[in-house]
Amino acid sequence: MEKMKMHSMNKIDENVKKIATLFPECITETLMPNSDGGGYKLTKVVDFDILRQIFSKTAIEGNKERYQFTWPDKRKARAIVNQEVNSALRPCREESVNFDTTENLYIEGDNLEVLKLLQETYLGKIKMIYIDPPYNTGHDFVYEDDFSQKATEYSSNSGQYDDQGNRLVENTESNGRFHTNWLNMMYPRLLLAKDLLSEDGVLFISIDDHELNNALSLCSEIFENQNIIVTLPRVTKKAGKTTDCIAQNHDYVIVISKQYNKLKIYLPSHTDDGFKYADEFEANRGKYKLNQTLDYDSLQYSESLDYPIIINGETLYPGGSYKRYLERKAGNHARADWAWRWSKELFEFGLCNNFIVLKKYNGYSRIYTKTYQNCTIEKNGKEFKIIYIDRTRPISSLEFVDNKYSNDNSKKNITNLFGENIFDYSKPVSLLKSLISFSTRDKDIILDFFSGSATTAHAVMKLNAEDGGHRKFIMVQLPEKCDEKSEAYKAGYKNICEIGKERIRRAGKQILEEMKNKNGDLFAEETSLDIGFRDLKLDSSNMKDVYYTPDSLDKDMLDGLISNIKEDRTPEDLLFQVMLDLGILLSAKITEEEIDGKKVFNVDDNYLIACFDNDVDENVIIEIAKKKPTYFVMRDSSLANDSVSVNFDQFFARYSPDTVRKVL
Q1: pLDDT digits 0-9 by tens, 623-658
Q2: How far apart are CA 444 and CA 408, in angstroms?
Q3: Do 89 and 107 contact (CB within 8 A), yes or no?
Q4: Which of 100, 119, 288, 417 has CB 3.0 to 4.6 Å from 9, enough for a Cys bridge?
Q5: SS3 state at 662
Q6: Dihedral sign, CA of 582, 586, 592, 598?
């Protein structure tokens, strides 16, 4: 059986494979030291001399001038992306909601490590990413990634830090590395985020003037300039006094696509106030608005559009004059508006189907056309038909300057749920709901790795309740400690994660209550709306160090190596690390059953079956093999005796030869 690697994707190996596909002649082999410092192993590497020759006519070397965006430690920030992490995401049922049925995730931990752990499983699967990173105002905390240590070996220095030692430091404007610290934090996270996005995916970044230019430069380098779609201003407040000459009443939302030519944007419904009239067709067609007169603003004169109309016994001509009509027929047609906008056939269809309104004035009449909200007239061959549509409008570059997107509404959202404003600087649900509706549908996955108070999760649930979607969210947040003087701390919340999780719980209940009040007796208690989440906590690997560095095994260590798994880890902890290793979504359905007294996990309807108990006998193995799983995973010390071990492969060869068997 194959041994599982139980660590994050090796980005360097993946990049070498990509180069090998394009330029196989650049790949060679050399002896490289093992990660633990003991011994060497034969490794495939890139021969940069050959690669340089291939690009000899276009490569730039040395101190030649070229356009570039750089800062101190940029190379180290780039290199940290390729460092493996031997971390684990440990499930916490007691802090979750609907753990067994939900498809939403709330992950507590440093987002750099989490993004690395998600690489293999969620590569290219995220439709939308929204982040609201620190604005770098001089008072924000930023992540201080230690380039010289592994992520799980960070020691705490100043500032705030979580239980794993992931550090936050205050980035003051007096700091000589003020912008550098922010760029070093954002660069590796955006590089990893890009890989998680689907080909038609989109990234939204909230930012203000402090780092707007740097954020745009970063995105231009990572995503390429053509994929930066637009920078949208958002109103932060419209009222209030300021001591500055100019009040800063807006920030921005940067919109970036993974691949612009594949991006799918869902346009919002048309809400033009002009649709204010109703007739007997309102139930199907919606309300309508009156357009300009039928002879208004024709592009150019056309004889086929210059015809008399008889309606209600009255004959009308474009331009309103029979005399001018006769002159035009005689060859004098200088004015374009002396023609109808509709052909004679289209007019007759519109008249028969109530798309025409005749208005009588003092001594004259005018013809108007209707535009309905939910339908239009379309020509199919020689026939006209009424086509029912979802009328949309373009997204405006000033979409979010309305006060409903301001921070005042953010406070209202929080206060409505908690009874007080316990979280500053969150974004309003209305903003996130609009962004999500523009970019996602049905079962798309939305990721927010600076989730804060979990506004994104709130918006996902609310939008699903409104349009019947089944979108799924992944929230990632460092358990940053709340200031002891803050309202949140006084209310009993020790860190931001506690606030975010409680917000999801309360928002879910509130949304269900709103659905119940709206639908009355039609409300189904067993609604399909997912208001739950699986709480996962970032921690060190479930495996002892010797699992990764067996060459360092010492004779004195043998007594402590009855198991290569840490003593405080549960079978469910192991299951989630296996799911990550095999690329199985962390939201996948998990069921438990007992076979001859042994706990057996079944993930995603027999895709993975795992058993981590000891003394597993042949009856258990045979029953598992009969289920024909795609993967079966167990501990390497789980088998009851040598007889079971010897016959293990034969059991699977007989009942499920295609099952991939792996051990921890």
Answers
A1: 999 999 999 999 888 887 888 888 888 888 999 999
A2: 29
A3: yes
A4: 119
A5: strand
A6: positive
